[in-house]
Automatic annotation (TrEMBL):
<keyword id="KW-0812">Transmembrane</keyword>
<feature type="domain" description="Major facilitator superfamily (MFS) profile">
    <location>
        <begin position="232"/>
        <end position="420"/>
    </location>
</feature>
<feature type="transmembrane region" description="Helical">
    <location>
        <begin position="329"/>
        <end position="346"/>
    </location>
</feature>
<dbReference type="InterPro" id="IPR020846">
    <property type="entry name" value="MFS_dom"/>
</dbReference>
<keyword id="KW-0472">Membrane</keyword>
<feature type="transmembrane region" description="Helical">
    <location>
        <begin position="48"/>
        <end position="73"/>
    </location>
</feature>
<feature type="transmembrane region" description="Helical">
    <location>
        <begin position="303"/>
        <end position="323"/>
    </location>
</feature>
<feature type="transmembrane region" description="Helical">
    <location>
        <begin position="237"/>
        <end position="259"/>
    </location>
</feature>
<keyword id="KW-1003">Cell membrane</keyword>
<dbReference type="GO" id="GO:0005886">
    <property type="term" value="C:plasma membrane"/>
</dbReference>
<protein>
    <submittedName>
        <fullName>MFS transporter</fullName>
    </submittedName>
</protein>
<keyword id="KW-1133">Transmembrane helix</keyword>
<dbReference type="InterPro" id="IPR010290">
    <property type="entry name" value="TM_effector"/>
</dbReference>
<feature type="transmembrane region" description="Helical">
    <location>
        <begin position="94"/>
        <end position="115"/>
    </location>
</feature>
<feature type="transmembrane region" description="Helical">
    <location>
        <begin position="271"/>
        <end position="291"/>
    </location>
</feature>
<keyword id="KW-0813">Transport</keyword>
<dbReference type="GO" id="GO:0022857">
    <property type="term" value="F:transmembrane transporter activity"/>
</dbReference>
Length: 420
């Protein structure tokens, strides 16, 4: 008896390139322009306050206000974004930022700079930015196919770094031309983001699992927390990112202080930020190579160990060039780690939970950043930059040891293979 061999299955068609996905490009461009505006104002606030007062504490207060929503707003915002229409949410957030930041541009133009006003607008801008970001991140899966998801996440991380390459240096340049200019630029950027969203055709979310059922926010927030807590691998990574992100607040303000102490200008700060963001972009663009070769578990160990080695030298390097090189390498590694973490989150979270899961992740990783900003101002005003950076290096070494212990064992490897 002759058994006929069944024909070989036809090869799967190649994935459609992201460059041909009209709705993804519109979403990507709109969010990118919005990020440009946010980067310009973030450095604009710091330069406006620090170069006017010479006080790291005053500058850190505005940064604290801008970061506080990460602690206070993330959880309810995630639950609300999963309820609300994502397109309308993003449109409302873009419009709100136009009016809020516009008030700063007008005030600075009139010479009426008031720290409480800057803090209030920074808080509102960041709150709207959180809602916008959660909605945009959750919407990506609805405009790309499953086989494009990794590339889409890398493109989004690359966009964030590209925004840093252009936005922060543009903010420093605009500040040198006119103190209100970074804020006027941000107003235009958010207006452009608003317009691009109007042309996205696809629905940005799937149907709810229980149509017509509306629960209170608290159970929905608990559902997002329970999902993230149930992902063993994600939970461990979040603890590491939460600790290291506090240190990055000290590093960010520390860079500006060290440049000024070394006789540098805002232009020097802008140049260093360009280099840092360029290296972060390179890290994001090459992240898929590391993901496919090493997997997320090894990336988490490698990222934290490399940061510990690099941060150990920041307080002792001779000159701005070497200092800039260390910061650039730190940002390259951050680009890899950020893509790895977001890819895992978006891949594992169901559509109706992505807003809440994303808010939990951001809360856990960035919620304490506002306290980190205050800590940065206190340390840099009360001790030397060398002492401050030495403290950062010691803490980062402890985080690296925790990463190796938490991800280097057999149990962690089994959890990764199981996808948990």
């Amino acid at each position: 008896m002759t058994v006929l061999a069944s024909p070989a299955p036809a090869p799967a068609p190649p994935a459609r390139p992201l460059s041909r996905s009209r709705d993804f490009l519109l979403l990507w461009i709109g969010a990118g322009v919005s990020a440009l505006g946010s980067r310009a104002t973030s450095i604009g606030y710091t330069l406006l306050v620090y170069w006017s007062t010479g006080s790291a504490t005053a500058a850190s207060l505005v940064t604290f206000a801008a970061l506080l929503p990460n602690l206070l707003v993330q959880m309810p915002a995630g639950a609300l974004v999963d309820r609300w229409d994502r397109r309308r949410t993003m449109l409302a957030c873009s419009a709100g930022r136009v009016f809020a930041i516009g008030s700063v541009a007008v005030a600075v133009m009139l010479g009426e700079v008031w720290i409480p006003h800057l803090m209030a607008v920074a808080f509102v801008e960041a709150t709207l930015g959180i809602c916008y970001g959660l909605a945009e991140r959750a919407a990506v899966c609805n405009v790309v196919g499953p086989d494009q998801l990794g590339s889409a996440m890398a493109a989004n991380e690359s966009r964030a770094n590209a925004a840093g390459i252009v936005g922060q240096p543009a903010g420093t340049l605009l500040h040198s031309l006119a103190r209100f200019a970074p804020f006027a630029f941000a107003v235009v950027a958010h207006a452009v983001s608003f317009v691009t969203l109007l042309f996205v055709r696809r629905d940005l979310q799937g149907p709810p699992p229980d149509p017509g059922r509306r629960r209170s926010l608290l159970p929905e927030i608990r559902e997002g927390l329970a999902f993230v807590w149930g992902q063993v691998y994600l939970r461990r990574a979040l603890a590491l990112f939460a600790a290291s992100n506090i240190l990055f607040q000290v590093l960010g303000l520390g860079l500006i202080v060290m440049v000024k102490e070394g006789g540098g200008s805002p232009h020097t700060v802008g140049l260093l930020l360009v280099v840092n963001s360029a290296f972060g972009l390179a890290g994001a663009m090459t992240s898929n190579l590391y993901l496919s070769r090493f997997g997320i578990r090894r990336i988490m160990m490698g990222v934290n160990v490399a940061w510990a080695v690099l941060m150990a030298g920041i307080g002792f390097v001779p000159g701005i060039v070497v200092l800039g090189a260390l910061y650039a390498l730190i940002n390259y590694i951050a680009g890899i780690g950020n893509v790895a973490g977001m890819y895992y989150l978006v891949k594992t979270a169901p559509d109706h939970l992505r807003g809440r899961a994303g808010s939990v992740v951001t809360l856990l990783t960035s919620g304490a950043n506002s306290l980190g900003a205050l800590l940065a101002g206190f340390l840099l005003d009360s001790t030397s930059t060398t002492a401050t950076m030495s403290i950062v290096a010691v803490v980062m070494a402890g985080i690296a040891v925790s990463a190796v212990l938490g991800f280097g064992g057999r149990a962690a490897a089994e959890a990764e293979r199981a996808g948990s």
